[in-house]
Structure formats: structure tokens, C-alpha cells
UniProtKB/TrEMBL annotation:
UniProt-recorded Gene Ontology molecular function terms: sigma factor antagonist activity
Protein name per its UniProtKB record: DUF4880 domain-containing protein
Record InterPro entries: FecR, FecR_N, Ferrdict_sens_TM
Pfam family for this entry, one: DUF4880
Organism in which the protein naturally occurs: Sphingomonas zeae
Domain FecR protein: from-to ranges: 111-199
């Protein structure tokens, strides 16, 4: 019988143990997420304390053997991670929890990009995620076939596995891969566009299938299907953004991901539709090129650039 990953296994709370391990490693420590986890439930602090003490006991037990050199924390400090946890301690924990439970424990991590930055993220299952600027994705080493896009835009090139479908959560929208290259944008509007294969949108609800050359925009509880050019999906990787009737407010949001300073839009024209392709390299060199392309006035402001109606 399978057990809840959030429940103790063999007397060891694997979620709290994972937090203790993560916070002990400076490369993985995420203080904001850790604080959120502590504050989410009054019992989390006690669970964490017990986990930290378990790790400390393991260190002390291993340190009693001269053949295993393990640094020892002088004394336990509540709600503060151990400064070091060695491979020997990890081995002791594997013995206490069990190999399967150790491998299956949550191992979440997040990757973010700054404005103007893109990042290619190879996953252990052979899939690849390319993250646009000003974006954040949350992944899990223990579950490489799941991803959560919490901000921005990402292109997914998924290695298809019918027995273990690749699932993406983008805001309130759930997606399941059916053998696919697809782009997900999360911002003023959530939009999914498919370049190859197919994607199932909202599999437990509307169950809308998108094939190559199709897209869907989420507006409230509505899914609005449209068509796209497959070679334009993820075109931002080659320095171009294509739009077919998108409001200028959304266009500015997309362009801003690839610039050092943001582009904003005056409220009077924010809903005006735009059709065309934007050369990102030209905009980086001089954002004023957006003026004739969009029939707007481009004005320099302290925070970046703003698009206004022509006088």
C-alpha cells in the first residue's frame, strides 16, 4: 500500500527531513519558501525541529566511529538548519527511511530568469525546458515529469512517455503532454500554443485537445481556441515575437521579458489589438522602433519606456 508523501515513514517525517537537508546546503537553501512552509501550519516548526534533531543524532552516532570523520554541531539550535550534513549521514538516513522512501522524497527546486535572460533546462527524463526572461518554474528532482510555471513563459520540448505523461501547471491551468513541443505563457492572459504533437488542456475538466498549429487563451473560465503558425511557437528563442490581435498591454508585457528595462502602455491604448512580428534585437538596440510598427508614440521614462497614443 502506498503512503502519503507528507506522512511520516517508519517514524521519520520525510518532508521535514527534506527541508532540513535543503536548508543545510547553501546551494539549495530557499529562505522565503522555508519561511512560507513554517508559517503554513503551526505544526511545521515542531516537525522541522524533530527532523533537525534526527540529523543531529545521526551525525553524533556516526561520529562515534573513528573511521567515519563527521563534523558535529556543538549543540542543537531550534529552527536553524545544521551547517553541514555529510554523505555518511545521508547513508544513515537511507537506512532509517528505506531506499524507496529516500528516493521518492520531495526534492523541489525553482529556477528564475532576469529580464533579458533566457535559460535552457535539461531534465533527467530527456525533456528540455527553455525559460524566457522574467520567468520562474518550479521542478522536482524526484518527479522530473512534472513542472509548475509560476511566472513568465517557457517552451517545453517533451520526451513522450505514454505511461508517464508530462504534466504542467500554469497558474490555474493544468496541461498534460501527448508527445509535444509547446509554449506556455503566464501573465495578463494564460496562453498555450503547440508546435508539435498535442497537449490536453484541463484534463479533469474541459479536456480540450490542442494539436500542432493550435493555441488556447484562458479568459476567466473560458478556453478560447485559435490557430498559430507552428514555426512561430517559441519564436522568442530566435529573437522574434509574433502576435495576431493581442492587446498592446500583453504585447508590452511579452517584449519587456527580453529587455533590460520594461515597456508599459498607456491605459487609453492598452486593449488595442496588434498584429505583426517584433524583432527583439532591433527593439533592444532602440525601443523607438515600436512606434511606427504599432502606430504609437514611444516615450522614455525613468523606469523604461511607455507607449502612448499619437498626438
Amino acid at each position: 500500500m502506498s503512503q502519503d508523501r507528507n506522512s511520516p515513514m517508519h517514524g521519520v517525517d520525510t518532508v521535514a527531513i527534506d527541508w532540513a537537508l535543503r536548508m543545510a546546503d547553501p546551494a539549495r537553501a530557499d529562505w522565503d519558501a522555508f519561511t512560507d512552509w513554517l508559517e503554513a501550519d503551526p505544526g511545521h516548526a515542531e516537525r522541522y525541529d524533530r527532523a533537525a534533531m534526527t540529523l543531529l543524532d545521526a551525525e553524533q552516532a556516526l561520529a562515534a566511529h573513528p573511521d567515519v570523520p563527521v563534523p558535529i554541531e556543538p549543540e542543537p539550535v531550534r529552527r536553524r538548519p545544521l551547517r553541514w550534513i555529510g554523505g555518511a549521514v545521508a547513508a544513515a538516513l537511507v537506512g532509517a527511511i528505506g531506499v524507496t522512501a529516500w528516493q521518492d522524497r520531495p526534492q523541489p527546486y525553482a529556477i528564475e530568469t532576469a529580464a533579458g535572460q533566457t535559460r535552457r533546462i535539461p531534465l533527467s527524463d530527456g525533456s528540455v525546458v527553455t525559460l524566457a526572461g522574467l520567468s520562474r518554474i518550479e521542478l522536482d528532482h524526484a518527479e522530473p515529469r512534472r513542472a509548475m510555471l509560476s511566472r513568465g513563459e517557457a517552451l517545453f520540448q517533451v520526451r513522450h512517455d505514454a505511461r508517464h505523461p508530462f504534466a504542467v501547471q500554469a497558474g490555474a491551468v493544468a496541461l498534460v503532454d501527448l508527445g509535444t513541443v509547446f509554449d506556455v505563457r503566464l501573465g495578463q492572459q494564460t496562453r498555450v500554443a503547440v508546435a508539435e504533437g498535442a497537449v490536453m488542456v484541463d484534463p479533469k475538466g474541459a479536456a480540450l485537445r490542442l494539436d500542432a498549429g493550435q493555441a488556447v487563451t484562458v479568459e476567466g473560465d473560458r478556453l478560447i481556441r485559435s490557430t498559430v503558425q507552428p514555426d512561430e511557437v517559441g519564436g522568442w528563442r530566435e529573437g522574434r515575437l509574433a502576435f495576431d490581435g493581442a492587446p498592446l498591454g500583453m504585447v508590452a508585457e511579452d517584449v519587456s521579458r527580453f529587455l533590460a528595462q520594461p515597456v508599459t502602455v498607456a491605459a487609453a491604448i492598452a486593449t488595442r489589438p496588434f498584429r505583426g512580428t517584433i524583432d527583439l534585437e532591433a527593439v533592444r538596440h532602440d525601443p523607438a522602433v515600436l512606434g511606427p510598427l504599432m502606430d504609437v508614440k514611444v516615450r522614455r521614462v525613468a523606469s523604461g519606456w511607455t507607449l502612448e497614443p499619437r498626438e
